[in-house]
């Protein structure tokens, strides 16, 4: 009965506003639940307006968007794709869908994202081995912009196209520009725990008009222009439904408010948990970066505290509070045990020391206090 447990504080549950139902109503009243439809077009327009991207294709998931995005960059069998190790598995799985293989790279300690120094090392080493990387995926984990200036310069120097996994970073910015618009292709997710949700959904953005057409074609079973069903290419059933896009339209109206609240939650925790031994907050915004602070993360340094993240997580559970370890690096996953990895100490440490605290925008200050009190209880108990 956990999902109906209203006393439980969840990590990042969906938070609907007032207008989602209007868009759904309209679609049903107009008998326009499929195919495509005005909500879908409107949702894509909303995303273009917010991000400044020229084109947007709404899809069934962020994973689908990464899959089509890599295909647009020409990734295919035998290719190698550079990818941060510290991310959710959905960043890397589509590399394998395409018959290519991932090459993993460590994080840097400031933003926790792809380390530019390790990136250069990896590119030079792969080229030396005769495997020129076909593409580079960058991720803005927990909404935190990666070191874009450095990374974009390296990608340009080696002429490697960039896919930007901004699944967690809708509403974050770098030099004032929305994340998702720095790569040749950008990807967003509207999964249930993201800053905005359509229950499940994703989007691909690009400034390339041909790629926009191609992505739509692949996402709807790659139908050749003929009156009958004819296919010359492999396609997918990846298009978002007009109903779910209606939820997305309602959610997009709330984006700036949601970013504001997530940032407030991060600051609130920081203020109220300040000074607990061994506990620190992260990641840190790089110069020019502004994070949506999707999830508030803490680190427990073993040199300064006996409390482990897992002990803290279990303690919060006894208070009916959900928390979660940081992403387990992909180079440590059994699935990717054989993949090349450059560096590894930084993201491994983050995984061993980190925990995500509940950060849903519907949380009240009373909820926040419940979490903070439970964290303090653990910290104090173990120091006495
Ligand atoms: C959520 C997420 C995805 C995948 O998005 P889905 O919509 O769940 O398929 C990809 N990358 C990252 C970093 C994510 O957090």
UniProtKB/TrEMBL annotation:
Pathway: Bacterial outer membrane biogenesis; LPS O-antigen biosynthesis. It catalyses: GDP-alpha-D-perosamine + 2-oxoglutarate = GDP-4-dehydro-alpha-D-rhamnose + L-glutamate. GO terms for molecular function: GDP-4-dehydro-6-deoxy-D-mannose-4-aminotransferase activity; pyridoxal phosphate binding. Its cofactor is pyridoxal 5'-phosphate. CDD domains: AHBA_syn. GO terms for biological process: polysaccharide biosynthetic process. Keywords: Aminotransferase, Pyridoxal phosphate, Transferase. The active site is at residue 194. Its EC number is 2.6.1.102. The modification N6-(pyridoxal phosphate)lysine is found at residue 194. Signal peptide: none annotated. Belongs to the DegT/DnrJ/EryC1 family. This is GDP-perosamine synthase. It comes from Hymenobacter sediminicola.
């Amino acid at each position: 009965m956990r999902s109906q447990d209203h006393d439980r504080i969840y990590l990042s549950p969906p938070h609907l506003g007032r207008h989602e139902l209007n868009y759904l109503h309209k679609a049903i009243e107009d008998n326009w639940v499929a195919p495509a439809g005005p909500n879908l077009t409107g949702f894509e327009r909303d995303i273009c307006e917010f991000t400044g991207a020229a084109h947007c294709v709404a899809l069934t998931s962020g994973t689908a968007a990464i899959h089509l995005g890599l295909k647009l960059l020409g990734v295919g069998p035998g290719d190698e794709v550079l990818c941060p190790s510290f991310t959710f598995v959905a960043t890397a799985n589509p590399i394998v869908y395409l018959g290519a293989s991932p090459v993993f790279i460590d994080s840097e300690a400031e933003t926790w994202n792809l380390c530019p120094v390790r990136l250069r090392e990896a590119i030079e080493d792969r080229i030396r081995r005769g495997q020129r990387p076909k593409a580079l995926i960058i991720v803005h984990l927990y909404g935190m912009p990666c070191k874009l200036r450095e990374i974009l310069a390296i990608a340009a120097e080696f002429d490697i196209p960039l896919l930007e996994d901004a699944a967690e970073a809708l509403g974050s910015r770098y030099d004032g520009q929305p994340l998702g618009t720095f790569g040749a292709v950008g990807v967003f997710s509207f999964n249930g725990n993201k800053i905005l949700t359509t229950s499940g959904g994703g989007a691909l953005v690009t400034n390339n008009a041909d790629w926009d057409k191609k992505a739509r074609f692949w996402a709807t079973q790659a139908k050749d222009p003929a009156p009958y069903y004819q296919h010359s290419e492999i396609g997918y059933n990846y298009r978002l439904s007009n109903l779910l896009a209606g939820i997305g339209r309602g959610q997009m109206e709330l984006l700036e408010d949601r970013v504001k609240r997530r940032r407030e939650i991060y600051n609130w925790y920081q203020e109220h948990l300040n000074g607990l031994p061994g506990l620190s907050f992260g990641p840190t915004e790089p110069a020019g970066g502004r994070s949506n602070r999707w999830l508030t993360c803490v680190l427990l340094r073993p040199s300064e505290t006996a409390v482990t993240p897992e002990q803290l997580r279990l303690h919060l559970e006894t208070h009916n509070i959900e928390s979660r370890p940081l992403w387990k690096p992909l180079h440590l996953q059994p699935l990717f045990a054989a993949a090349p990895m450059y560096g590894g100490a930084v993201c491994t440490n983050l995984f061993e020391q980190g925990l995500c605290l509940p950060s849903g925008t519907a949380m009240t200050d009373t909820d926040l206090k419940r979490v903070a009190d439970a964290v303090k209880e653990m910290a104090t108990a173990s120091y006495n």
